[in-house]
Fold:
Amino acid sequence: MSDTERLFLTYHAALVRYLTRRLGDRDWAEEIAQETFVRALRQETIVNERSWLFAVATNLVRDEARKDIRRRRHLELLAAEQREAQVEGPDVAMERTLDAADARRALDALAERDRQALLLREEGLDYPEIAEILGIAVGSVGTTLSRARRRLAELYEAQVAVRAQRGNHAAS
Amino acid sequence: MPRPDEGLIHAWLDGQLTPEEAARIEQLATTDAEWGAAVAEARGLVAASSRILSALDQVPTGVIPPRATAPSRRRMPWWTKAAAAIVLVAGGSALVLQRAPLPVASPPRVEQALPEALPEALPEALPEALPEALPEALPEALPAAPATTVAPAAIAANVPRPTPMAAAAPKAVSPDPLASPAPAPPPPAETREASQGAVRAFASAPPTADAAVPQARTMLEPTDGGARRETSANSANSANSANSAKSAVSALRVGAVGLAPPAVSGGCYEVRAVQTPNAVVIMRAVRADGDTLRLQAVQGTSTQGTSTLRAWVIVHDGTRRGAMTSAADGSGAVAVVATVAPCPAP
Structure:
């Protein structure tokens, strides 16, 4: 197995999942992942592969994210259309859609650093790797993560509560 | 007894502390109620955040609007265009005058004259000329033979060959990818007629395609990564034969190059495969990249599995956006023609 294949097999799934969660679109995630691997192939030496790949992917996302506020609004509209068009059982589809929308809003409301730390940790990166990618001290990763997790849970619960309230209003 | 440190607790739960630190936190968690409560809460937060994030894994694909467009086509200065138009008009007139005294038994058929120029000429030539030319003039102008004799050569000579795609080519980023492309200036009369002829020849392969031509605003060209290269190579080698050109096309799988002035992101198109004209797929334009549209099937009435067809746009610099799914039966839908269609009711 070549280095390229090994790199791809080892990290591709995790990288795409990370990017999908970050971006909200699988195709976009695949493209960024592809670009990341292309850059990895051009790189002569990589000391820590996982850290390097996630750092490059994070930077690619960041570069694009600056230009992309308008696109993301458009994305939300299109994503909603897509979800409406899905052919699942209506209850399951609705529940999943709402759940994902709440999660997306909660994640998007986090500070960028908190969001990145959370997503990177979810993909199994250790604290030194996260610190390297985010450019922070290793000792502050735990604090960053604890804040991010608490905030995410609070924001998500708030979204769910708002939704429940709307549902009650609609029912009455 | 120190106050509970949330960061430390999360680091412990994540297994990121040294053995000594971990032992200390563990002892605090078991002996101190406040630390115990903080650890329990942190466990809950870790689990909750994982669950919340996992909800993001179920996402639809192909919903992203464009974040990158091909580099804008090199703009020629106005005087260059004017000079080109004059040369074209003069050349065309000379050709017509030269042939005028000769008895003409029958005008050359468009279908015979064009295929050699088509595969290379279309992607670049059509976006400019089609939107202007098609809607009003196409039905009447099609039988006009003299113009079509000039057209293929003019197109082939003046249109640069599309760049072969590089799968991993870096992508250019447009500052405003959602913006509609600037409308193309009206082309010279010859070019308009030439384009009409080109469309006619390309679209008239299936028996039913003619009906679609008058409203056609988008032309999708069969291509994908290696396929586009194959197109150029084949067309160069078999330039003298319409049948050769057609067979070269039929060897390809479907991709999509379109033109979309005005870019109708969100609009719907009725897509017909040239090879399988009875297969109709309603596709929604989900992305406008410069003068190309990326379409995604939303409703199919296919008889040949093309309901799974997803036409991904290949922008005119040859960069492919995303992947491409061909017909379910593996045949590849080959060339497709898209006409503006009403979006299906939800």
Chain A is about 85% helix and 0% strand. Chain A has a mean pLDDT of 83.
